[in-house]
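Lab notebook, entry 956. We have the chain sequence and a SMILES string for adenosine-5'-triphosphate, and the next step in the workflow is to get a structural model of the bound complex before anyone spends time on docking refinements. Request logged below.

Task: model protein plus adenosine-5'-triphosphate, output structure tokens.
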Amino acid sequence: MQKLIGSVTSRLVISVPYLWLLIFFLVPFLIVLKISLSQVATAIPPYTPVLDITAGIRSLFNGISQFTWENYVWLVEDPLYYKAYISSLVIAAVSTVLTLIIGYPIAYGMARAPASIRPTLLMLVILPFWTSFLIRVYAWIGILKPEGLLNQFLMWANVIDTPLNILNTHTAIFIGIVYSYLPFLVLPIYSALEKMDYSLVEAAEDLGCPPLMAFWKITFPLSMPGVIAGCFLVFIPATGEFVIPDLLGGSSTLMIGKTLWSEFFSNRDWPVSSAVAVVLLLLLVVPIVLFQRSEAKAQESEK
Amino acid sequence: MNTTWSRFNIASLVLGFAFLYLPIVLLVVYSFNESRLVTVWAGFSTKWYVSLFNNQAFIDAAWVTIRVGLISATFATILGTLGALAMTRYTRFRGRMLFSAMIYAPLVMPEVITGLSLLLLFVAIGLDRGILTVTLAHITFSMCFVAVVVQSRLVTFDRSLEEAAMDLGATPVTTFFKVTLPVILPAVVSGWMLAFTLSLDDLVISSFTSGPGATTLPMRIYSQVRLGVTPEINAACTILIAIVAVGVIIASIANKRREVNRARDEQAAARN
Amino acid sequence: MKSLGSFRRKFAPWNDPQAKPFIAIENVTKRFGDFTAVDDLSLNIYNREFFALLGASGCGKSTLLRMLAGFETPTSGRILIDGQDMSGIPPYKRPVNMMFQSYALFPHMTVEGNIAFGLKQDGMPKNEIEARVAEMLKLVKLEQFAKRKPHQLSGGQRQRVALARCVAKRPKVLLLDEPLGALDKKLREETQFELMDLQMKLGLTFVIVTHDQEEAMTMSDRIAVMDKGKVKQVATPAEVYEAPNSKFVADFIGNVNMFEGTVTAAQDGKINIDIAADKMTIRTDATRDCSVGQTVGFAIRPEKIRLSRKEPANSSVNAAYGELYDIAYFGDMTVFHVQLENGRIIKAASLNAVRTVEDPLGYEDMVWVNFDTDAGILLTA
Ligand SMILES: Nc1ncnc2c1ncn2[C@@H]1O[C@H](COP(=O)(O)OP(=O)(O)OP(=O)(O)O)[C@@H](O)[C@H]1O
Ligand SMILES: [Mg+2]
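Result returned:
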């Protein structure tokens, strides 16, 4: 088949998106890596050395010899950074588990709903995903504030008599992540469950397996690909999340996305923020590769 | 199925959807609040919408956002569709692993990393930051989403349609435009819509890659939010939500209509 | 003159040494990885022939057809169509058209659009296309469905659109991959005759792949029986049925009783075979060379075996005695399973030519089976 399609066309089909991603996705990482080894400078751009390939190989080598590990040493020495990394990973992991606990029953309920209303339910889950992330996070500020709607409601219902302090705590971040990333988890689980043949569960029950056991032994394992994909889709971006900790977490919460942002925009320290990014990427490279593998495998098996 | 399970299902759906929609509903409701205090209801008013439309900074930002969205979605759709074709049609070419990694990684890559790295690229090649750089950045991350959407349609595409076209004398290029593209068009269109909304919504990557005169709506909203919650932002958010919701609902109704018609036609055909 | 079975028509270019094959498949091999789907296969197919490829699932029929259409390239060997070497020629430049098992109708085009598609690719003028489409619609009796989309058609109608679409281009060869597989039995039988008519009318060469032996027998001039990528026999339907060249073909086509034994005597063009396992002696025409002492196979079709309660005249050869073990009634005929002393089952079929039978055979009746010396097939391969 390959030979049939004019090789010019096929080369075009492959190389145009390939080149684009090389230039705008891969090369930028190399630049980040390079700048993370540079020194901060009060210049434009604010770092040295500035490698200029046009200036010839010699000056390139000169530049490379000026590379420094200083920024990484800095990351290790200042507890702010590794605390931020650890706290990001922990917050992302806890949020992923919470999202799974809340999302799985929703996906299950959708998959077992009558076939006629399933498309509507699906659309209802997707719809919030189409509305802006920022807006959805913003909506929670008004709810979680000390004088916000949640506290107003709880006090009106006489559940509490002094307002709860939720905004600017980890709880608020958890709520924000669960809320924003819920569709990412529900959709893959739903599509795994929906594909599943329900007669498998009936067969298990017919063979003497009680319903809860049948769920645990049949349904859950079969939904595993969806669970795994969904968890990656939540965990990886949540680790580097900026908007949620910034708007809901307040100044006391440490998350690495926020740290990177402020290094970059407030301190204008490009080399350190690059180093922060490189280390974050190294932390996430294993989950990212696993995610890519599982997606590629899922696509293969569709064929 | 036994009833306790059904009840459990219904309960989890109701609670789940309440959780998903209540914050948005409250946000919309309070955009019509008379009071400046977002959380105290003081009667119905549309004054915040009026003040929003008099806010030139918001209007400018909206205009930038729409331009970036339209252009980046279109290019992302073209590139993403090509990428999906490359992934499904050519199972063996050099560097396919890398290609597949570059398609999937941006889906989960923390935005701060993507944003920072693109900015550093633009600085390195001496591209002035502005609408162009934001658009390039948006094309890059949304083309991967398009590629995944189109790819999932292509893997279930019946290849014998293309073979039939070629058998009837169509060259590969003609085959693509006359047969493949029309058949996968719904996926391509929803890929475009996805790319457009992703671009419309993006804050972090835009913040890194934009420069003076290229402030997008989310950036504008964000800087206002940092100053405090105001009904004017609620109004802006409501408008954004309304645009997207109307688009998605129209698309899904059209889809539903097509399916119903199709089912009816099929039944009619089976009868004669 | 005696001949095997009945012929569809007087047409046998393959017996004519002067005739040039229209499609020549020369030593074609196709490998997928290390799996060999088509194995050093050679075949000649003649102009205006209705040629069937028959074989078990996975034996390489579709692969062979797809190589003719140009969707697969042979790993080695070559294919000539009308004297022209097809290697390197893409599907859209070949003088063949294929009808797909799934029909592969373009879902976004109307019936007309589908039929016109191939003509447009040839750059045919618009009015000619219209005329040709109308002609095709008439041919497959779908005039009133011209404006419909494929999903608005029933299975049989879709099949006819697919047919019209590939015939519209007037290809020299039509390739059909299980064209009737998706139709129910009745529709399939009707369509078989329609296809045969069409082939005659247009004077095309048909190469058809099928799973269904009856279909292959009904429609084709010749059948190629395939197994594991190789052709086992190429012959007319009657030859394949009445004179299979190997145990595989005998067993694959129709119902058969198979025996194996040793030749004990050979004279006057007849041989005796001792079937030790069944304590039976078979006497049959020596249609193949064989010598005393050789192990040979013997196949006999159920309808060529007689059943009787009385012992036949010469029960020392071509006869066996057993108990009626099973009776399968098909309406037009009945198949009896007779179990010999050693447990071996022999199938005998009899036509139900009359409506009422006096004293019919029943379960557990003891019966004789016997057959004539020219009823069976001697097999040495
Ligand atoms: N593209 C391919 N890659 C690998 N193996 C293939 C490919 N196409 C066919 N095969 C293998 O070649 C063998 C022959 O396939 P083919 O489709 O020709 O069989 P067939 O005779 O048409 O069977 P059926 O009657 O089921 O349609 C099968 O074992 C199949 O698995
Ligand atoms: Mg086949």
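Notes for the group: The beta strands of chain A are 39-40, 47-48. Worth checking against the assay data. The longest strand of chain A covers residues 39-40.
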